[in-house]
Design brief:
The complex is a heterodimer of chains A (260) and B (534). Chain A has two domains: 133 residues, Rossmann fold (3-Layer(aba) Sandwich), CATH 3.40.50.300; 76 residues, no CATH class. Helix content of chain A is 35%, strand content 24%. Chain A contains ten helices and eleven strands. Chain A has a six-stranded mixed beta sheet with strand order 7-8-9-4-10-11, with helices on both faces. Chain A is globular. By secondary structure, chain B is mostly helical. Chain B has two domains: 236 residues, no CATH class; 246 residues, no CATH class. Helices cover 76% and strands 0% of the residues of chain B. Chain B is built from 22 helices and no strands. The longest helix of chain B is centred in the N-terminal third of the chain and has 36 residues. Chain B starts with a helix and ends in a 5-residue tail after the last helix. In chain B, 46% of the residues are buried. The chains are: A alpha/beta (260), B mainly alpha (534).
């Protein structure tokens, strides 16, 4: 069974394609790494699949349901950590998690219990009473991950989840995600720039370039002809030469420096 | 290395230009032009009237000038609050964000203050009024003294902006502190106790107390010092005006510097460093079904932590008490029975106007949280309903506190007046909120989280908000006129109750449609509120 299936999924901005004719096939229970250079269409794809954007053309079935036809039924089973996060900045961390759980239909008491467990697991307990506005970027990321997990989703979307998080926290979150996938509890769709992290985590890979899906398969299939990095560079274009040195930083005289 | 002032101005102009060129920018620009087109002619008419007064005062000189100019400056003093709430355009150049750059923060702050004075239709109105004073005086008595007069009025404007900025910074800082509400409540109660013990109630007592109160005017120094200086200038005594001008300049600079230091400290410490710890509260959520409950709880918490709401909730009851104590309404003839009720009716209206940004731009402060409304399985209509109900709870509490404060100072009004005021406060809500939802979905804008009000809505939404408030006021004024004609004032609360019921039904029936619009416009809304690409 496919957790995500798209056909001809296209999104134009001002007539220019951000995502074009996308045909994703993400098996249920997969840890799917969605890769691409900056501006390739990763975040747009994720926003299309979570209902934040409407497609210009094509269709998307998520967990077997047409997203456009039954958005609320689909959303109830998704957990999302979007680019830019989805946190109410003037709630405390504890309130954020609990209210998020309640929005997904959990009873208040159960949502509060799970919020406590998540705060512990994500090492946010000491800051549970602080408003989110005062959290660091990394803490916000962890909290957003907690919000995405609190209702026990079947499908998790993570947009650059490790960006801005320290190495220790990355390791903890990685173990948590791997454990969730290992138990076949959920499917994860993840975008990241960090190929090393993706390579150690995922079971399936898709590479998008200029809005088009250029590679898709299991990790083994994709690495059949080289490392993931080599495949990635081949898919999105040859390595570029180093840029020329910057004139005002190159020489000892530093001509043109306003304080010179 | 430091950036020039010109760079900051360019940054500000470019940001403004980008906004105009973006989606809906042309309509926003047109609405801003309409606002200016409304404000400037009105200001010119008033300016001409003030110019005439100034002309007469300059011709008469001496004591006459004192009375006329006292009236002028008193009028300006009355508008002082209005100027004050417009002082927020400096948020466009966020001090906290600018600290990362090699730009002198003092320049950023000063530029923000200047921009707030000239970039807003309403503050521009007051500047034009001051221009009228100078013009009238110039026609009546040309001479070098006019330079000093212009200087005095400019210093008055600068001092007003500086003082308002300082008060806003201090209030916002107070509102962020833990137990701020409790301390304010205690101070309010102590004030009332002192008032009750002094027995200073009734018109006679107010007249007795007036000379003492007059001495307190120096606390609000801009009108007091400007009045002292300008009166002497009109009397033909420029040498005696100079010390007052000097004092005004020193006070303005000192106040501006203090406001800047407070703002800088807030920016350096993150501005929100001291915030309340969570408390175990009873779930208001239990009152509502399904997702509406948690949405309502979230809205109530956000409103309770918003500096603008806190400042308003502290200021309005105090203002109501002051009005009840110092300026009781006295109407003659057929309108006499309305005397007691009018302040309450005004409070019922003003509580909605004061928090207009929250019903005309309900998504303004969500930031990234707005994404959660679209990601979670919640009906968009519930999102708006929760916002409206939470705001209604908030306005009703502030209204009741203000009405109680007013009644404590002016005496309890008749029951029909109390019932009428409550019916008006509750009855206006569905009309304003229902139409406000539509405006908020069509023209949303991200707003800074601060104590200031203006700038929290787009020009289009501001214009629409003015129209909605005017229309609703007119609608609710009709029963009053009818009751006066029939001499049956008790019919006012009944009629308002009927209007409230009809409004609530209309709000409920239209909510799903506005919710669907919110869902359809998700890309535009997220672009405006979170900055997501579209």
């Amino acid at each position: 069974m496919l957790a995500i299936e798209t056909r001809g999924l296209t999104r134009l901005f001002d007539g220019k394609p951000a995502v074009q004719d996308l045909a994703l096939a993400v098996p249920a229970g997969a840890f799917y790494g969605f890769l691409g250079p900056n501006g390739a269409g990763k975040s747009t794809t994720m926003r299309l699949l979570t209902g934040l954007l409407a497609p210009t053309a094509g269709e998307a079935r998520v967990l077997g349901v047409d997203l456009a036809a039954s958005p609320l039924a689909v959303k109830a089973q998704l957990g999302v950590v979007p680019d830019g996060l989805n946190l109410f900045e003037r709630l405390t961390g504890e309130e954020q998690l609990r209210i998020h759980g309640q929005l997904y239909g959990l009873p208040r008491r159960e949502a509060a219990r799970r919020a406590g467990e998540l705060l512990e697991a994500l090492e946010l307990s000491p800051d549970a009473g602080k408003v989110v506005q005062d959290y660091s970027h990394g803490m916000k990321k962890k909290l957003a991950l907690g919000c995405a997990l609190i209702h026990g989703p079947r499908l998790l979307f993570l947009d650059e989840p490790f960006e801005g998080i320290d190495a220790v926290a990355v390791s903890g979150i990685r173990r948590l995600l791997q454990d969730l996938v290992a138990r076949r509890a959920l499917t994860i769709f993840l975008t990241s720039h960090v190929l090393e992290v993706v390579e150690r985590l995922v079971t399936h890979v898709g590479i998008i370039h200029r809005g088009r899906l250029v590679v898709q398969g299991t990790l083994e299939e994709v690495r059949a002809t080289g490392t993931l990095e080599e495949t990635f560079i081949r898919a999105v274009g040859e390595a570029r030469p180093a840029p020329p040195p910057l004139s005002w930083l190159a020489g000892p005289g530093r001509e043109g420096d306003p304080e010179a | 290395m430091s950036a020039r002032l010109g760079d900051l101005v360019e940054l500000r102009l470019r940001l403004g230009w980008r906004r105009l060129r973006g989606r809906g920018g042309a309509a926003e620009g047109a609405a801003q032009l309409v606002l200016f087109a409304l404000a400037v002619p009105a200001a010119l008419v008033l300016s001409a009237a003030l110019g005439l007064g100034s002309w007469r005062a300059a011709r008469a000189g001496g004591g006459h000038a004192s009375i006329a100019l006292g009236a002028i400056l008193f009028g300006l003093w009355q508008t002082w609050t209005a100027v004050g709430v417009t002082v927020n355009e400096r948020d466009a150049l966020d001090l906290r964000r600018m600290l990362a750059y090699p730009v002198a923060p003092g320049r950023v702050y000063a530029l923000g203050l200047v921009a707030s004075l000239v970039g807003d239709p309403f503050s521009l109105t007051w500047l034009l009024l001051l221009g009228g004073v100078v013009a009238g005086a110039a026609v009546a008595r040309p001479g070098a003294w006019l330079l000093l007069l212009a200087l005095a009025l400019l210093l008055f404007a600068a001092a007003t902006v500086a003082l308002v900025a300082l008060l806003q910074e201090l209030l916002a800082r107070l509102a962020r502190r833990r137990f701020a509400r409790e301390i304010a409540l205690a101070a309010g109660l102590a004030g009332w106790l002192a008032l009750a013990l002094s027995g200073a109630r009734g018109a006679g007592a107010v007249r007795t107390a007036f000379p003492a109160l007059a001495r307190l005017r120096w606390i609000l120094y801009p009108p007091a010092l400007a009045h002292a200086a300008v009166t002497r200038l009109f009397a033909g005594e420029p040498d005696r005006a100079l010390p007052w001008l000097g004092l005004l300049a020193v006070a303005a600079v000192t106040t501006g510097w203090a406001a800047y230091r407070v703002a800088l400290e807030a920016a350096r410490t993150g501005g929100e460093a001291v915030l309340p710890q969570p408390r175990r509260t009873r779930p208001a959520a239990a009152l509502f079904p399904e997702r509406l409950g948690p949405l309502f709880e979230k809205e109530v918490r956000q409103l309770a932590r918003h500096p603008a709401v806190r400042v308003f909730a502290l200021a309005l009851p105090a203002l109501a008490a002051l009005v009840g104590w110092k300026a009781p309404v006295r109407l003659g003839g057929d309108l006499a029975p309305l005397s007691q009720a009018l302040p309450l009716f005004f409070l019922a209206l003003y509580v909605h106007l004061g928090l207009q940004a929250f019903w005309v731009n309900p998504l303004a402060w969500e930031r990234g949280g707005a994404r959660a409304f679209y990601l979670a399985p919640v009906a968009p209509g519930d999102v708006l309903a929760a916002k409206n109900l939470a705001l209604l709870a908030c306005t009703t509490l502030v209204f009741l506190a203000s009405e109680t404060a007013h009644a404590a100072a002016a005496g309890w009004p008749e029951p029909w007046a109390v019932a009428g005021a409550l019916a008006l406060e509750l009855g206006l809500a569905p009309v304003l909120y229902g139409l406000g939802n539509l405006v908020g979905v069509l023209w949303p804008r991200a707003a800074p989280v601060g104590a200031q009000r203006s700038g929290a809505v787009s020009p289009l939404a501001a214009l629409a908000g003015m129209g909605i408030a005017s229309g609703a006021t007119l609608l609710f004024a009709l029963p009053v006129m009818l009751a006066l004609v029939l001499d049956r004032l008790w019919t006012v609360p009944v009629a308002w109750g009927v209007l409230a019921g009809a409004g609530a039904i209309a709000w409920r029936l239209t909510l799903p449609a506005v919710g669907r619009l919110l869902a359809r416009r998700r890309e535009a809304v997220l672009a405006a509120v979170t900055g997501d690409e579209v």
